[in-house]
Specification:
Layout: H1 3-19, H2 24-40, E1 48-50, H3 54-73, H4 75-85, H5 88-108, E2 113-115, H6 126-145, H7 154-177
Parallel strand pairs: 1-2
Keywords: Membrane, Transmembrane, Transmembrane helix
Protein name: DUF2391 family protein
């Protein structure tokens, strides 16, 4: 990171702290300043991404569908779901690994310079909640809609949804961050 980028990052950090301490009218002005400073940063690694809005949510939903449709029609999804339904610890580990992969793509892999902006509870990034949330909504809807899961056996349905969630969350992540919004 160049000195200029470091200075910009310091300014963004200070503005984020200020954002939390001011009234609504001033908060809007601080948001505008943060966007202006973000625009000044170099684009060496791609765009600087701050915030998570409905456009990002839409991109994530489309990305999850692109990776999800093959999961909806592939019988292996149900086979692996059946396997995981009998192994709750592996089911939980699968969810944890998928969330870790999403985190790694968004914040570690450096496809884009993604900033955590106003996290939930002060620690949970909105982008993570949005990506994982939209994927865990699209996966059961698609699987149910195409008759791949039935909710009379909820553990099996959740396990099969989890299997689809893994690649769909990767698609949602790439769909969100690669356009650079």
């Amino acid at each position: 990171m160049s000195d200029s980028d470091s200075d910009h990052a310091d300014i963004i950090d200070e503005l984020e702290e200020l954002h939390d301490r001011v009234d609504a009218e001033t908060r809007e002005h601080v948001d505008e300043l943060m966007e202006q400073v973000t625009e000044l940063q170099s684009r060496g690694r791609g765009n600087v991404i701050v915030g998570f809005d409905r456009t990002d949510l839409s991109e994530a939903a489309i990305g999850s569908l692109v990776f999800g449709i093959p999961m909806f029609v592939e019988g292996g999804t149900n086979e692996v779901g059946g396997y995981l339904a009998t192994r709750p610890l592996q089911l939980l580990a699968t969810i944890a690994v998928a969330v870790a992969i999403v985190y790694g793509i968004v914040y570690v892999a450096d496809f884009q310079d993604v900033r955590v902006h106003r996290p939930f509870l002060g620690i949970v990034p909105r982008r993570m909640v949005g990506i994982c949330g939209v994927t865990f909504l699209v996966a059961p809807l698609g699987l149910t809609g195409w008759g791949r899961i039935e909710w009379e056996t909820p553990l099996l349905a959740v396990a099969t949804t989890t299997v689809a969630f893994v690649p769909m969350s990767i698609g949602a992540t790439l769909g969100d961050i690669l356009p650079g919004s």
